[in-house]
Description:
This protein is mostly helical. The chain is built from 16 helices and 3 strands. The protein is 59% helix and 2% strand. A hairpin with a 4-residue loop joins strand 1 and strand 2 (32-34).
Amino acid sequence: MSATATPELKSSGLQGQIAGKTAICAVNQTELIYRGYEIADLAANATFEEVAFLLLIGHKPSAAELAAFKREIAGERNLPAIVTEVIRKTATLPNAVPMDILRSAVSVLGHLDPQCQDVSPEADLAKAKRLLAKIPTIIGHMQNVIDGRDLVEPDASLSHAANLLYMMTGKKPSAEAAHVMDVSLVLYAEHDFNASTFTTRVIAGTMSDMHGAVCGGIAALKGPLHGGANEAAMDMLKDIATDTAGGKMTVEQWMQRAFDEKRKLMGFGHRVYKNGDHRAGILNKLGRAMAEKQGKDSTKWFDLGDQVQAIMLRDKNIHPNVDFPCGMTYFVMGIPVPQYTPIFVASRITGWCAHIMEQHANNKLIRPIAEYVGPLGLSWK
């Protein structure tokens, strides 16, 4: 007996294979484009709210459109009491981590959303705006519960980025901190058919609802090979700092040991970018500038990062991706490492929802085939 012939698998993990068409984002060796605008242009000239509007609505907002969009998002930031209670309870569970708490809270929001089961374009856009508004509140409430502090309510006068920082700490962020966070959200907002976005499209392709698709995206982003890489990158730098303290070993020796052990060094390499991630240099420059104003305790992380980056490029010809400077930047901002990936969600929710809406609008079930490599001809008797 022989298996039915199937097309030969070109690569593992679907690497380099086109899985669909999109008008939302293009990723290539020289550019990262959101609906026609290159990422360096957006990072330098657009706010995150403008980028969110661009991704969700489809065009650059006018001043009036942006003002109305910002008012609408700010007005949707508060959470239903039951969601806050879910956060309080799940944050104290022994195996709960922030991404799982966030996923659970988004799932409960779906139960409460009057348009949850409606996949029309109008309903999808309304739900996208509500999720964009509420996810920073979930993150802020979660961190305050973890820290044992009173919850901080959203401040409608603050930007998306500034409000996120404020709710996590109870302190109004400096203009510089708010700007750095804003740019990081712009950089993380969208990246075509990455693992989590593709997950949301597969779920949406069954004509399932937006909240369910977003929960799938959160689960995919949690993994250290995807969104969790920014947390893992900072944990790696802390390990290097500990192991090299007091001259016990050099950074060169630490890196060589990691190479010998075939340890995966997080924050480096990319499935698409082979000559460097366009976003990494932008965030590294902003993060280092902020660190230099804080002093040596902060700049030491970027100095260490520079050493690691130079060794990786020299010995492995591998460039850092955006997760590497993100880990250092968020760390010197005082953000707890386990919240790095939830903050990623506060940005990427825009890209996810844009793709879910695009999938629903011109839907075809996503159902690839597999190349069977198991046994044949077995008999049960």
